[in-house]
Amino acid sequence: MVAVVIPGYKVKDHILKVIASIGPEVDRIYFVDDHCPEHSGDFVKANCTDTRVKVLYHEKNKGVGGAVITGYKQALADKAVIVVKLDGDGQMDASLIPKLIEPIKTTQADYVKGNRFYDLAFLRQMPFLRKLGNSGVSFMNKAASGYWNLMDPSNGYTAIHRNALESLPLERIDKRFFFESDILFRLNTIRAVVAEMPMRAVYGNEKSNLKIHRIAFQFPFKYFSRMLKRIFYNYYLRDFNIGSLELILAFIFMVFGVIFGVYKWSESIITLHAATAGTVILAGLPVILGFQSLIAFLHFDVSNVPVKSLSSMGEF
Question: Are residues 97 and 125 in the same domain?
């Protein structure tokens, strides 16, 4: 069974068209009214005749991530095999759902995301500020999640197999706009395979609820914390490999080189005696070796993207 989750907050003007555009390949549609001030849940109930639709309500606003998680839980309870997340503002083409879920049906991937950057011609429709913002967070997202192969990691048009969904700690995933990035981090810790689907985004008169100033102050810290957790989980808690050793060596060499260099530099200032060539080499060489070890670790990390899907280990 294929289900679609639509988080609903201030999408009353678009939601009926979005639901109507969802094809017969979908068996259930969950519209989650995230305490919407427009009462969009009641609006859908009163005006939508599609029997696949079930409206879920939040008594208080939980954010886009919270709304999606509510839909995920209901889909799992109803035995859905694939769950698609589709925004209610009309920016995502619902006719692409068969293409989105195909890698999951063929057990090539556990999670599929839309990719607006696959073809440069697609970018013409995207506003400049959106392109700039997506480019700015892309690298941080890759480093935090470990999915270096993703070109559009913040894209919210997604599909997930229930095997992966059941393995995720849903209550611990960020409930607000960091949801898309946080779920990638969680997927990497369970070694789920993530693929991308080329798509075009449609930008009209819809209004975004995302506040840029909040991203600028909150997201970098969140990305950094997820990166540290991912490295600890994947390289030291659950496994120890050549990448683990390279990172340890990088830390030891660079810390030693910096501390020794600063100590000798301070000593030279106090005594007014220039450091010898050997002292300079002894301070600089560990830093160089540490940097090379760090580059080696990054190379290993990039090549360590999961390739065997969880869904291939069980019956579809």
Answer: yes
**Residues 150 and 260 both lie in one domain:** no
Residue 315: band (very low, low, confident or very high) from pLDDT cuts 50, 70, 90: very low
Task: Return the axis-axis angle of helices 179-189 and 63-77, rounded to nearest 10°.
Answer: 50
Domain residue limits at 144? 2-232
pLDDT of 78 higher than 50: yes
Q: Do 151 and 248 belong to one domain?
A: no
If asked whether residues 133 and 45 sit together in one domain, one would say: yes
State the pLDDT at residue 200.
76
Q: What is the pLDDT, as a whole number, of residue 130? A: 66
pLDDT higher than threshold 70 for residue 126: no
Residue 147 resides in a domain: yes
